[in-house]
Design brief:
The complex is a heterodimer. Chain A is mainly β. In chain A, 0% of the residues lie in helices and 57% in strands. Chain A is globular and about 35 Å long. In chain B, strands 2, 4, 5, 9, 10 and 11 form a six-stranded mixed sheet that branches. In chain B, strands 1-3-8-7-6 form a five-stranded antiparallel sheet, with no helix packed on it. Classes of the chains: A mainly beta, B mainly beta.
Chain lengths: 113, 114
Amino acid sequence: DTEVTQTPKHLVMGMTNKKSLKCEQHMGHRAMYWYKQKAKKPPELMFVYSYEKLSINESVPSRFSPECPNSSLLNLHLHALQPEDSALYLCASSPWTGNEKLFFGSGTQLSVL
Amino acid sequence: GESVGLHLPTLSVQEGDNSIINCAYSNSASDYFIWYKQESGKGPQFIIDIRSNMDKRQGQRVTVLLNKTVKHLSLQIAATQPGDSAVYFCAENIGNDAGNMLTFGGGTRLMVKP
């Protein structure tokens, strides 16, 4: 299994809602990532988990809350989002931290109304 | 801050021709570079990578060239096919114990004309 699976594929939420994005990989990778991608722009790093511990937070607002329950799962909890948070949210994993290629999921297309 | 960028936002080629997508980077500390392909509605898909101790690497129909002197990276696609139509991103990586710091360039859209 060489896939990173993200659910849901599409999500529409209001600014007062609480929702969660989920990501799963079964490649035994020990590093997992959340990226945000606006339309026609490159992905931007949000969070890095290394061995289930948060190792990098790229100054992301607290309305985004990551969670890594185990080495295969990564969640992104969303609360009180703004319309400008609408974007494609990509999960990725890599075997280790350091210089290794990242495997990306297909993303969750989020619309905040 | 230092960043990765691309020279051409859109490249249109005839099917069967070779394609060359260029990328400039400015962070001299970067020691690992990756090309990703992103089709509409999908996540970035790994194409090929190269470490800074190399200047050329070949894959199936693709070649990556790295010129550290001028901080330039290119992706060559041989015999371009309609299925190659996508946005291509170069990315530089400064790996450390905290995690891969993968920074993407702006992207180039490749359009293949039949």
